[in-house]
Design a protein that fits this description.
alpha/beta; 6-stranded mixed sheet; binds FE-MO-S cluster
């Protein structure tokens, strides 16, 4: 892998190579289990074709977008609203007669004259018009790049309209350029949802075991499977942040006994703020992979320490694992030893390694697009992370214990006891701890590198996103999108794992990829004609 790394770096000018060198890291034979240091969450160098998204995408598309009854208005040119319109496949299920605005895309459609003379009036008019049509309980406004550049005061508009309409209206300064990637947008959305939504509902659900699920966005229906599983166990899900969620359910979040954190990158801010303000502890879970799901459920049972819940969890694991094992017995021999490379977002490149391990496949290289050092190396490195100007740009909310509602669910001794029995309380170990020595970790992979990695590593399967997809497929290599799941899924929990095994077998052992030949391999000269000829 050191050779692979050297080869890739040799294609760069010296200055770029020096920078990328710190973002391509080979996991060596571990010294005391400490993963190597990696450079992450820094600006992509100009001229490099990154696979990252923008801050607006992280704020609107990722964190707030999946909440169906908050009416969401993009303040900006039409493209930003259009391209963030249902492309992430975050699903929702509204009850009969309940609001669901997700099929809509609302935008102020800024034009040249608005950029020159200001777009604030247009925004106020748009909020009134949207309210008149939809009568929502809450409206969220998202800024796009030009809004920050021309200085429209979206927060004043939100405050005024909130008063005028008598509903919650809040705005987010999530201009695309605000941070180095979509990660900044997650933080901005966490701050806004925490300030304007969480705790705004005084009546919580009844239940003996109440939990929130953080960082699960219901892509391809993952959250539906997890909801069913929790219900079967007699666990009350107060709300998810934010897959299949509502303004009302998120308002009740402080009633939970514990927060389970699925995607650490996008929602760790919320977990920490809720712990400080309300005394709700959190622990990290991964519901991707059958073994990982069983582990997360056992940790949940351990947290509550209730024998009835523990035995329901064990029964469920036993029943579901039997089906999973039967499917693995059939498919594992067909996939064992095959190699995968995986460059995805800020958590899946880690979570999905579990599924490949179950199939006996080898993840030879993996990386995140926009995660921070803690997602690679574990939260213990947080005190050592250098805060640069780009991170300082994102507001850090000052949170203190709520004088009326703060009640610690566990005392310090209780938390220590859970930690001692292996429950990852307030902790995330990161991706690298789970990777084999000799594997290559790549942060913020770019177009040139992903092509080079195909040449050098010759993987049997690639997992990434839409930007890589067709380049990979044209080489005759099967490719699975782990963002949208390519119209597939769900892949969470036990049943999701079975879906995934079948999909991977279909891709890796399918013959279609061996039959295609890129046109430029047959003849380097492409000849085309116009339809009118
Ligand atoms: Fe979290 Fe996500 Fe991800 Fe993410 Fe995303 Fe996503 Fe992702 Mo695409 S919140 S970090 S910003 S798990 S949209 S549901 S798949 S890049 S790995």
């Amino acid at each position: 892998m050191e050779e692979v790394k050297k080869d890739i770096l040799s294609g760069y000018p010296a200055k770029v190579a020096r920078r990328r060198e710190k973002q391509l890291v080979v996991k060596g034979a571990d010294e005391g289990g400490t993963p190597p240091e990696i450079l992450a969450n820094t600006r992509t160098l100009p001229g490099v074709i990154t696979q990252r998204g923008c801050t607006y995408a992280g704020c609107k598309g990722v964190v707030v977008g999946p909440t169906r009854d908050i009416l969401q208005i993009t303040h900006g040119p039409i493209g930003c609203g259009f391209y963030s319109w249902l492309t992430r496949r975050n699903q929702t299920r509204a009850a009969e007669g309940e609001d669901n605005f997700m099929p809509y895309s609302l935008s102020t459609d800024l034009q040249d004259k608005d950029i020159v003379f200001g777009g604030e009036k247009k925004l106020r008019a748009a909020i009134r018009e949207a309210y008149g049509i939809f009568k929502p309980k809450a409206i969220a406004i998202f800024a796009t790049c030009p809004v920050g550049l021309i200085g429209d005061d979206i927060h004043a508009a939100a405050r005024d309209l909130s008063e005028e309409l008598g509903i919650t209206v809040f705005a987010m300064s999530c201009e695309g350029y605000k941070g180095v990637s979509q990660s900044a947008g997650h933080h901005i959305a966490n701050n806004a949802v925490f300030t304007h939504v969480v705790g705004k509902n005084d009546s919580g659900p009844e239940g003996e075991f109440k939990v929130n699920l953080l960082g699960e966005y219901n892509i391809g229906g993952d959250a539906f499977l997890l909801e069913e599983m929790l219900e079967e166990l007699g666990v009350t899900l107060v709300t998810t942040f934010s897959g299949n969620s509502t303004f009302v359910s998120m308002g009740k979040a402080p009633f939970a006994d514990v927060n389970m954190v699925m995607c650490h990158r996008s929602i760790n801010y919320m977990a920490e703020m809720m712990e400080t303000k309300y005394g709700i502890p959190w622990f990290k879970v991964n519901f991707i992979g059958s073994g990982a799901t069983a582990k997360a459920l056992r940790h949940l049972a351990e947290y509550f320490g209730d024998p009835g819940l523990s035995s329901r969890v064990e029964d469920l694991i036993e029943r579901e694992t039997a089906e999973v094992e039967a499917e693995l017995a059939r498919l594992r021999p067909r996939l064992e030893g095959k190699t995968v490379i995986m460059y995805v977002g800020g958590s899946r490149a880690h979570h999905y390694q579990e599924l490949f391990k179950e199939l006996g496949m080898k993840v030879v290289s993996a990386g995140y697009e926009f995660a921070h050092r803690d997602d690679y190396e574990g939260r213990r490195v947080i005190p050592d992370i250098k805060i640069d100007a780009d991170s300082r740009n994102i507001e850090q909310l000052e949170v203190s214990p709520d004088p009326e509602r703060h009640s610690p669910r566990k005392d310090a001794a209780g938390i220590e006891k859970l930690k001692a029995s292996g429950v990852p309380m307030d902790d995330y170990e990161g991706m690298m701890a789970d990777m084999e020595s000799g594997s290559l970790v790549v942060d913020d992979v770019n177009h040139y590198e992903s092509e080079r990695l195909l040449d050098l590593l010759k993987p049997d399967l690639v997992c990434a996103g839409i930007k890589e997809k067709y380049v990979v497929q044209k080489r005759g290599i099967p490719m699975k999108q782990l963002h949208s799941y390519d119209y597939g899924g769900p892949y969470a929990g036990f049943r999701g794992a079975i879906n995934f095994y079948r999909e991977i077998d279909r891709l890796v052992n399918g013959s279609v990829w061996k039959k295609i030949r890129a046109p430029w391999d047959a003849s380097p000269e492409l000849i085309g004609t116009y339809g009118s000829d």
